[in-house]
């Protein structure tokens, strides 16, 4: 029996698994090199074998959200398909995600690689918001499934707001913001390098620090007033214990003054950067980016849809992506969108209870059962008969 494997090909992480699996395998979508082991590249989860994670630098296949270095990307695929998640392409259909509005030349390269290099029997291209829409609409009330929804995809390179009406994207209403997890990590590096010590080469550690310590403010002015006070009146201040790669593999957050006597760990004291960094998602102009924040862009996207769909769109807003894991982001979005939406409409913002990073992957189970699945797929026979541009044009027409 043919298997169906889904690859949610994010710029930061690849989520891969057969649609019958309970959960996908999450693998860093990059090659990393460390100062301590210059000769050895670490691909994906191999980074766990690195003895010293200081000074790690990334070699990425993606640039600004799009695959631009296929040599790097194929090396990562080769490693995953041979070691982390072996795939027998002779009896496995593939579902793979790509960025919204992906360039045709990148789509052509992807199709060629999977049919020529891996002898794939069937390939289905989709996007993470599409899979998220499948998952959301099929897991709500079966008696009254939602006809519309808005997917807020807060990703690594940028964020997208994508409205869906009856399972179809409203292309003219899609909004993109050039703020994502990568920019937030880089901004935190700059702030800490300016205030404490130079960490510009420590992307790996600072990204962990961001994930462990940052949160979304519910009242920015009040939190800034709090941050001006001294500890212990200032409830925001925390110390982040940096990893020493011997006893501490990953840094952790602690309240000031709780270190045990004799501990000689290096710590960084964090104050308002804990909430000013995620605030860029709501106010990109703070960093000189002349764009709307995600709450304002969501309202703008909904207003670009047909008027009769707007009540349903406001009532079904789903947030996904790795950068949507900041504590407080759902309540902040709910409050901000509520303040801008018409009073007569119900506003409901939800974030998956399990993991917003892998939420879209689960939608592949419903996509595979869609009656139109075979029509959306590119078979090996189609590829051999029509060539890469032929199948690409045919697929786009559908």
TrEMBL record:
<dbReference type="Pfam" id="PF00022">
    <property type="entry name" value="Actin"/>
</dbReference>
<dbReference type="InterPro" id="IPR043129">
    <property type="entry name" value="ATPase_NBD"/>
</dbReference>
<dbReference type="InterPro" id="IPR004000">
    <property type="entry name" value="Actin"/>
</dbReference>
<keyword id="KW-0206">Cytoskeleton</keyword>
<dbReference type="GO" id="GO:0005634">
    <property type="term" value="C:nucleus"/>
</dbReference>
<dbReference type="GO" id="GO:0005856">
    <property type="term" value="C:cytoskeleton"/>
</dbReference>
<keyword id="KW-0539">Nucleus</keyword>
<comment type="similarity">
    <text>Belongs to the actin family. ARP6 subfamily.</text>
</comment>
<keyword id="KW-0963">Cytoplasm</keyword>
<protein>
    <recommendedName>
        <fullName>Actin-related protein 6</fullName>
    </recommendedName>
</protein>
């Amino acid at each position: 029996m043919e298997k169906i494997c889904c690859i949610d090909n994010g710029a930061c992480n690849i989520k891969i698994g057969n649609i019958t699996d309970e959960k996908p395998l999450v693998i860093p979508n990059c090659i990393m090199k460390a100062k301590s082991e210059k000769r050895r590249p670490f691909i994906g989860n191999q980074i766990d074998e690195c003895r010293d994670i200081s000074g790690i630098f990334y070699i990425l296949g993606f640039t600004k959200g799009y695959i631009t270095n296929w040599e790097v990307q194929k090396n990562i695929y080769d490693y995953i398909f041979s070691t982390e998640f072996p795939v027998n392409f002779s009896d496995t259909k593939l579902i793979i995600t790509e960025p919204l509005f992906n360039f045709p030349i990148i789509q052509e390269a992807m199709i060629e690689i999977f049919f020529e290099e891996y002898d794939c029997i069937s390939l289905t291209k989709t996007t993470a918001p599409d899979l998220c829409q499948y998952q959301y609409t099929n897991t709500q009330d079966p008696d009254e499934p939602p006809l519309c929804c808005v997917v807020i995809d807060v990703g690594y390179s940028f964020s997208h707001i994508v409205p869906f009406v009856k399972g179809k994207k409203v292309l003219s209403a899609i909004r993109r913001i050039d703020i994502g997890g990568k920019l937030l990590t880089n901004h935190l590096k700059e702030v800490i390098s300016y205030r404490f010590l130079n960490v510009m080469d420590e992307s790996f550690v600072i990204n962990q620090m961001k994930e462990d310590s940052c949160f979304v403010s519910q009242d920015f002015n009040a939190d800034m007033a709090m941050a001006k006070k001294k500890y212990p009146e200032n409830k925001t201040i925390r110390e982040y214990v940096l990893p020493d790669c011997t006893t501490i593999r990953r840094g952790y957050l602690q309240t000031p003054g709780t270190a045990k006597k004799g501990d000689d760990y290096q710590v960084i004291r964090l104050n308002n950067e804990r909430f000013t960094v995620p605030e860029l998602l709501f106010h990109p102009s703070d960093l000189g980016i002349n764009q709307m924040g995600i709450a304002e862009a969501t309202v703008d996207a909904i207003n670009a849809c047909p008027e009769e769909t707007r009540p349903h769109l406001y009532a079904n807003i789903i947030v996904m992506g790795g950068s949507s894991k900041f504590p407080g982001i759902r309540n902040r979005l709910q409050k901000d969108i509520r303040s801008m939406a018409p009073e007569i409409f119900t506003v409901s913002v939800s974030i998956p209870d399990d993991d917003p990073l892998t939420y879209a992957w689960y939608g592949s189970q419903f996509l595979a059962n869609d009656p139109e699945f075979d029509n959306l797929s590119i078979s090996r026979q189609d590829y051999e008969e029509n060539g890469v541009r032929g199948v690409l044009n045919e697929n786009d027409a559908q």
